[in-house]
Model the fold of this input.
Amino acid sequence: MGAVKGSILIVDDEKGQREILRMILGREGYDVVDVPGVREALAQLGQREFDLIMTDLKMQGQSGLDLLDAVLADDPQQCIIMMTAHGTVDSAVEAMKKGAFDYLEKPLERENLILTLRRAFERIGLVRENRVLQKRVESIATIPSMRGEHPKMREVFRIVGKISATNSTVLIVGESGTGKELVARAIHQGSQRRHQPFFAINCAAIPDTLIESELFGHEKGSFTGANAREIGIFEAANGGTVFLDEIGEMNVAMQAKLLRAIQEKEIRRVGGKVNIPLDVRILSATNKDLEQEIRKGEFREDLYYRLNVIRINLPPLRERGSDIAALVDHFISTYSAASGIAVEGVSRPALKVLMNYAWPGNVRQLESVIERSVLMAEGSIIQPEDLPSEITSAASQAGMVPFELPPEGIAFEELERNLIIKAMERADWVIGKAAPLLGMTYKTLQYRLDKFGIERPEKRSKT
Done:
């Protein structure tokens, strides 16, 4: 017997129908399990996974639609085929609108059955490939300081996962402390160059007189102090990746030489006469608006277009406040383990302080604050008094909302409803993340959402 093509769960209250299907599909090479109803099907699904489910639409007790709803609620990508008798085709079409792959009319025709299964398993194969790619993207999100579920961060992870395997130049744009070098390293690690060198250089930290030598190298005697030949970063990184951080600080003369190196794929050491072939991927980053720098004459437009083939915009931490709690947990775990201090978490009041702070230094600043707080904590839970005073005072002022009660009074419930909606929007409609913003427990916020009939806008539009 050949390799098993896949596993199928058959759900039908007609024993004869189940036996026929088990015989036909068994001969076709499928691993088949059959059950008489929804309850038994859910019990099987609790024990193992099936590639595909074939279920009768009309059965005694719960229907195939009930099974469809229960299964897709747990796994929206589960492949399900409905089997329907004459007169119930409309219900089968409804099932497809809900997410069923297809339907088959009884009595089943063998050729149509086999053809439908082939199409279904082609779709299952594509779903599996997508899941592998998604896991690859998600794995990038586990890089320290790169965790986040905010839509803007998910977009960053998606782009990184999509373009890492290419050789395109990438421009990473974001404020200081947002993790631009971490993104660059993630791209390198996801590429075919991962086993080759990765060099990061801060263009703002090297004097204009030395940056050409630093990047391209120099020959002995090419300038005062050049007592020996030195290879530069580009030559040392041949076959790998060069990350040019703060590219907006590079002087215009050096920009012209960098442009030539990118275009010609070769470099020449300072004082040298031989062109050296170049095979490096160039990633660059800036916290400046390069288009504005171009208008000011401070950055070459042609170089900008060479570097900006793929652009990744890293949001500041203040724009993804819903990620702060997860980042705090991650940094507490990291630094409590590194220091040997048993700090297990952060109190709700301390987390509220952290959520109210603007974080001008972004994730890098948050990491430093949590490292300090772990060292200063008096107990196993970080309290507001364990945080730096500049954080607590600034967050306190930010959290104060000037408000004067008008003579005519206010509609308090409407005010409360609006505050809840704003908190849910800031937390991307995740109750567990919105509750601390309002000083509520999960259950209290859930009660108020139900009380006011507040739902996510997308959900309302579908009803």
About this structure: Residues 110-140 form the longest helix (31 residues). The domain at 151-315 is CATH 3.40.50.300 (Rossmann fold).
